[in-house]
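so my prof wants the structure for this chain in the tokens format not the other one, which i didnt know existed until like an hour ago. anyway here's the sequence
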Amino acid sequence: MIDTFLFLLVDGLTNGLVYALLALSLVLVFTVTRVVNIAQGEYVMLGALTLADLLQGRMPGTLYLLIGGLALCAVLDVGRWRRDWRQALLYTAGLAATGAAAVALTLAALALHLPVIGMMAVALVLVAPLGVLIYRFTVHPIPNATTIVFVIISVGVSMSVQGLGLLIWGASPYPVEPIAAGGVMMGPVFIPYQSFAILITAVLAMGGLYLFSEFTLLGKALQASAMNRLGAQFCGIPVNTTGALAFLLAAAFSAVSGMLLAPLITANYEMGFMVGLKGFVGGAMGGLIDYPLSLVGVMIVGGLESTSAYVASAYRDVLVFSLLIPILLWRNTRGRVEAR
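here's what i got, hopefully its the right format
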């Protein structure tokens, strides 16, 4: 009995830490831009499949998405040429240089046969800018749209990215190597090294974001935009830049969670949707604004998922998603109490 409990505890903590990175991404995007990004889980899928391609020596499909997005940016900003052709030339040259650098980095990584950690870094460089591109295509043109409009747009983005994932990678799952094979026995429980990698990465990501927010100018701009977007704009803070930065960091955190999760479940084009929803359930406990409470929420989600998989595996996802109902009722009650 004790062995089973400890096993479920370790498994629940591992799942919860993966969802913690998703919740961090959701909270970051919502506080800075007021966008409930339902599509956040798709970066999990892109990160996992990009890493799978790199480890198998293939040119990752994400590279084509990145180059296509940069080209679309150039087309959408064609009006720059009428206003100031010199600025437009510099802007287009920057887009072209970004695409060329991404291609060169990918070719170098494939030629050098980098280890898993090196390939993860390359995959991160390819996936994170997609967050900025999606911000440019969806949020930037309509910054004052209502929350429901952004929810509808993010659902459309999720469906589009998932469809592109099916088109590029197909429906077959892809195995992904762990950062370190094997594990260690701690008492009666075997803990894979991958679980330690997830723990260390989650702690570094959360600590790194805290240090970035507290001790850098860009980080303080993010905090100002999160506290009062209009006030930050009046103070001269470029809120479009902070919004793009929030999407960039959120895409990076989600991609890392996908790369860490893929060795445990294999990578496929559908994985991001379910993982993203579970991260959202946990993040809802903090109202998508309070990360410590969201962290508690994702740990509860991870524990419930692990326990239900053992007790009633057929109803695992049902039990996890049904947790959203009491969370929302609790948030509603708490909001009423605070309003008094």
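also thought this was worth mentioning. The chain has a mean pLDDT of 85.
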